[in-house]
Design a protein that fits this description.
198 residues, mainly beta, 2 domains, 4-stranded mixed β-sheet, globular, Thrombin, subunit H
Length: 198
């Protein structure tokens, strides 16, 4: 089971400019490349499965390719609701790999540097290039990632399930389910701060 990707077809979303090339592999290669990184480090979760990504960072100039590395990203959940795939990010050197809802932001120039988004699982990854943000939607809130890292995290928007219904004029609109009323509640957030505007 080691290195096996679950059956969901990986999403590839490259809306942000990026300085790397990446390929999702069907399984871990029998002969590992010289550079191999496991995310999170030294994890036993990889035994349940992993997203295997061969990453080729660009060198100093766009026609020079740096030494590739294999990123083994531990699988979070096998539920089809939890996404799997690759996203470019607001910082061109970083890649976002999501494996069954576990989201990893990896610095392709120094792959030992990475951040794991705290949501278990991330339910949606939404690029908003016009605002320089990559949004991570969890069960209860939304986290925004910009060129320098985490930009904001919303307050609790739902007891179980956040849905983005639209983004317009710098405002993110959505709904969240409230347990006390057993109803969907509408919310609006300022994209620059994550603060509720209604």
């Amino acid at each position: 089971m080691i290195g096996k990707v679950h059956s969901t077809v990986p999403i590839v979303d490259l809306r942000f400019p990026h300085r790397w090339q990446a390929e999702v592999l069907a399984a871990r290669p029998l002969i590992l490349p010289a550079r191999h990184y496991v995310y999170p480090r030294e994890t036993e979760e990889v035994e349940r499965g992993a997203l295997e990504v061969l990453v080729r960072p660009e060198g100093e100039s766009s026609d020079v390719i740096a030494q590739p590395f294999l990123a083994t990203c531990a699988l979070g959940f096998r539920d089809p609701v939890a996404p799997t795939g690759l996203w470019s990010t607001p910082k061109p050197e970083k890649i976002c790999a999501v494996s069954g809802g576990y989201a990893y932001l990896i610095d392709t120039t120094a792959p030992e540097r990475f951040t794991m988004i705290p949501y278990r699982p991330v339910l949606e990854v939404r690029p908003v290039p016009e605002h320089g943000l990559l949004l991570f939607v969890g069960h209860r809130s939304i986290l925004a990632w910009g060129p320098e890292g985490q930009t904001w995290e919303s307050e609790k928007l739902s007891d179980e399930g956040v849905t983005i219904t639209g983004i317009e004029n710098g405002v993110l609109r959505g709904t969240g389910w409230t347990m006390i009323t057993d109803k969907e509640t509408v919310f609006a957030l300022d994209l620059s701060s994550g603060q509720r505007v209604s």
